[in-house]
Design a protein that fits this description.
The protein is an alpha/beta fold and 340 residues long. The strands form two sheets. Strands 1, 2, 3, 8 and 9 form a five-stranded parallel β-sheet that branches. The protein has a four-stranded mixed β-sheet with strand order 4-5-6-7. The radius of gyration is 20 Å and the shape is globular. The chain is built from twelve helices and nine strands. Helix 2 packs parallel to helix 3, helix 2 runs parallel beside helix 10 and helix 9 packs parallel to helix 10. It has one domain: Glycoside hydrolase/deacetylase (TIM Barrel).
């Protein structure tokens, strides 16, 4: 048969999807009644490209999900104003991810941030210049947090953009209580700095399997290592790590469909293990950058559309998961039954 390998690939994809659909249709996923909710947390680091803001929000609407957007504040600083930013341990005006393209670009991003917030999504802190702060002192972290708050709070006025929402300042100063460190690089000074700055959680750590959030003044969320690929080798549940494994962080558009399928099966497999098992919250991380011709975003879209509407599943932000957890002690939250 011509192109038999492609036929087998497509047949496998259709068959695996059908098996998942059959499982999802079973009452309580084949389990007894009164199972805890299966939470899924999908987050995005950086939150720069306007097209991806629109695409992620559209996905959320279709899937019935809320997301967390970890914002980097240099995306709100025009290049001509870059020397207003003094990153810890680096020269003034430095940034690992550049600066905004124009004031029009900043205006569009500010509108996206506010609209996402109104839609129920969470805006969280990813620092400013995307530097490795693993060796920073507490004071340096506090300085970076302060820069983030100042540039975000004053972004409308600094850039001469009219029609700032009436509640913008309160939003920036009181609602942004989550953090993820660039490169997931943390040191001993980060947690006390987060506590002093008033953060409620940190999503910067890694675990072998999905774990319940840790207790403490600053709650800890860990991205899990999940099995992936033909040998089920574990990998961090984040698109960039898949990109490195699949193609050494080099674009291979000719293999985009293959990489999409591998990522999708990894996400779904990680979900099924929890949905059928202990129902520990599953966390998946992404970036707005499209890697390998968008393979990982397509995998995300397939996964979210299939998963978020399943019985006893909630696709929520970190903030909303923490609120759910805070309705009981962290140890008891996983045993809370579904009542709807």
């Amino acid at each position: 048969m011509p192109n038999g390998g492609m036929f087998r690939f497509r047949f496998k994809r259709v068959l695996s999807g059908a098996v998942f659909a059959l499982f999802a249709a079973m009452p309580n996923g084949g389990h007894a009644a009164e199972r805890p909710v299966q939470f899924v947390v999908i987050s995005f680091d950086g939150a720069r490209e306007i097209e991806q803001w629109n695409r992620s929000r559209e996905l959320a609407r279709k899937a019935g999900a809320n997301f967390t957007f970890f914002l980097s504040c240099t995306n709100l600083i025009a290049a001509e104003n870059k020397f207003d930013y003094a990153p810890p341990g680096h020269k003034r005006g430095a940034s690992n991810i550049g600066f905004a393209e124009s004031r029009e670009d900043i205006a569009a991003r500010l509108r996206q941030i506010w609209t996402a917030r109104l839609e129920g999504h969470e805006i969280a802190n990813h620092g400013c210049g995307h530097f490795d702060g693993g060796g920073w002192s507490k004071g340096q972290w506090i300085a970076e947090f302060g820069a983030f708050t100042s540039f975000l709070r004053d972004a409308w006025s600094i850039n001469g953009i009219p029609f700032a929402p009436a509640g913008w300042t309160k939003f920036v100063e009181t609602e942004i209580t989550g953090f993820r460190a660039p490169y997931l690089s943390v040191g001993s000074a980060l947690e006390p700095a987060l506590a002093e700055a008033g953060f409620t959680y940190d999503a910067s750590t890694v675990s072998r399997d999905p774990q319940q959030p840790s207790g403490g003044k600053v709650v800890g969320f860990s991205l899990p290592m999940i099995p992936e690929g033909p040998n089920a080798r574990r990998i961090l549940a984040m698109d960039y790590n898949l990109y490195v494994r699949h193609s050494a962080a080099m674009e291979q558009p000719s293999k985009s469909a293959e990489f999409e399928e591998r990522a999708y099966l990894a996400f779904r497999g990680a979900f099924e293990r929890q949905y059928r098992g202990d129902r520990v919250p599953l966390q998946l991380g992404f970036h707005f950058r499209l890697m390998n011709d968008g393979a990982y975003w397509r995998a995300l879209e397939r996964f979210a559309m299939e998963t978020c509407s399943l019985p006893e599943v909630r696709c929520v932000s970190y903030r909303d998961l923490l609120r759910q957890q805070n309705s009981a002690t962290l140890s008891e939250a996983g045993a809370k039954p579904v009542t709807d």
